[in-house]
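User: I'm curious whether this sequence folds into something compact or stays loose and floppy. Could you predict its structure so I can see for myself?
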Amino acid sequence: MNALKTTLLFCFVTILSFGNISTKEKEALVALYNSTQGPTWTNTWDLQSPVSTWYGVVVDNDKVVELNLPFNNLRGQLPIEFGDLVNLKIVNFFRNDISGTIPSTIGNLKNLKELNIAFNKLEGQLPSEITHLPSLKTLQLFMNRLQGEIPSSIGNLTQLERLELYNNNFVGEIPSSITKLKHLKELLVSSNRLSGKLPSNIADLNELKVLSAFDNNLFGNLPSSIGTMVSLEELIIANNAFYGDLPSELANLVNLKVLMIGDNDFKGELVKIGDQLPNLMQFDFVNTKSRSSIATLDTED
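Assistant: Here's the prediction. I'll summarize afterward.
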């Protein structure tokens, strides 16, 4: 009888300590803890306590569905085992000290909806496996040291609404497949080393509200079709090598609040564009090579 009680007690304690999650998920969390110096985190984990009590870990139906560890002094690399947390829906590692590369096993997280590893020290290329996440709506990797090209398969993320890759070292062209992201509302790729032209069918992103691509090496004419993107509220393409006349169709963007086109080689009476946009609050075309003496117009309250 005593042996039976002991066995039952052991089973109870074991279940409690795992928080009912699978052994594989628990091991993946411990691997993350060890690889990012868990004992020195701002809010650390007691590995002897139930997983459901660990800071930033959300368990639902015995599955780890969220990891919320922003501003928590994670130092080190994401382990390969990170891809074993297959039930994750939200990952927020914003503003830590995570270095190294994004493991290719991230492609296993098929339920992931939000991924934020912005403001860290990630290096290397963006693995193509990250484009194998069918549920992803938000991808925030800005303020890192990522390099190489944006994967050409980025268009596979058909549910994506926010893509924030600014302040990295990405090169090459903006992939044409990006125009397959029909639900995209924010595209922020500023302060990289991107080159080439805007995708010719950029206007297919008819739900886009923010297009920010300043401080790159982009060139060419601004396509007239951009005038059909009536949801646009911010168009920020300053400090590139665009040239030619601004398309008159820009006047159709009646919801535009911010238009920053300075430090390009646009021609024509640029100030007229600003006069035709009723909701414009910020309009900067200073230092375009053709009209370098014109000052910034800022009507923001």
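Summary: The CA atoms of residues 25 and 85 lie 6 Å apart. Residues 2-18 form the longest helix (17 residues).
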